[in-house]
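Assemble and predict.
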Amino acid sequence: MRFNILTLFPGFFEVFRDESIIGRAILHKLIEIRVINIRDFAYDRHRQADDTPFGGGGGMIMKVEPLMRALATVTGPVIYTSPQGERFTQQMAEEFARLPELTIIAGHYEGIDERVIEAGVDREISIGDYVLTGGELPAMVIIDAVARLVEGVIKKESRENDSFSAGLLDYPQYTRPYEYENMRVPEILISGHHKNIDLWRLKESLRATYKKRPDLLENREFSALEKKLYALVREEEKEKTMLYQVRGKSPRLGKNNIVLPGASVIGDVTTGKNVSIWFHTVVRGDAAPIVIGDNSNVQDNSVVHVEKGKGVAIGNNVTIGHNCVIHGCSIGDNCLIGMGAIILSDSVIPENCLVAAGAVVGPKLNAAAGSLIAGNPAKVLKTMEESHMKLLKYANDEYLERLEYYQEELQLAEKQGSQIP
Ligand code: SAM
């Protein structure tokens, strides 16, 4: 493939044409880079290729005649590098790499006479929303991106997974040493298991794209495998921001859990399946373990904490309302802890109990299973009736339903409604 560059400053391209991959590609005649000095086509006494703008104003404009004469010596599409152009992309690079010849005009000063763009340019291309002193660097950027796609310039497998080639960003890469300042290369990459390595790489490509350029995923047609891996990545990333290790202990969350934004889960915390921990709740297992059973939920702004040697055990199907404090205690299966209740250290709430909103439960409460507990200090008011039991189940089921649709649908909302101008 042949590249022609029209420039007032040919010196810019000397090193570019000699070094590294581009230098080798030229040597092996895979590409050719012809640097055309526009001044050679300025025929007046001073070989003037630029002039002051009509209408006044600062700077110089590159003249139409030398540029048009220089363009007459080339064939194929002509690009003008310009901050006003379409943004250069990998897709464009792929398109250009199929051409036998491409010409690039490197503007300088205040740019080129508009008539060149009208009469001699096929496309204006920008390398980003900023203004450079000249089009020489953009020309090198474009040639570099295109040349590496020309057959034989680099090995196909070296660029197959490059960012953007398959619509995803590249996966993380490592080389020797295996360990650097306590940072190790992921085990999988030294396992020798190529199928697993490929899976890991695809997953990490999806992760990198999700974290750095989620816009690339908006209209992607995911394969079945990609869909699965992408769901995993999203789950892992959501959890990562809210889980903390302390004293070597990290939370171990069960299947289908959700930890909502602003909530933190810290240290020795183990949860069963379908557990939901709602906005701004803190579950802090720093001095003893916390266990939360299947299908339980801890709602917004609650605190679950331990004392040295006094962990927290929360059973299955437990609902803990907003703003509760659950401290070094145990709560049996199917309980409902009302909003704002405080359960102090060493307290035991047996199964099937309802603790009313605002109750303060201490270790002396001696409740039987199925009690209705209320007050400060909390007492057993009566044994639960059928209607209370239904309430416990209803509250828990509601949160299981919410868990499902929050998993699927929660996203940041666009600002809506009237805007102050
Ligand atoms: N007055 C021009 C404008 O605002 O559109 C900018 C001229 S700039 C100082 C000089 C030359 O640098 C341009 O003619 C163009 O060739 C090149 N250039 C500057 N920024 C560029 C960018 N972001 N992408 C591509 N080319 C750029």
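Residues 242-402 form a domain with the UDP N-Acetylglucosamine Acyltransferase; domain 1 fold (CATH 2.160.10.10).
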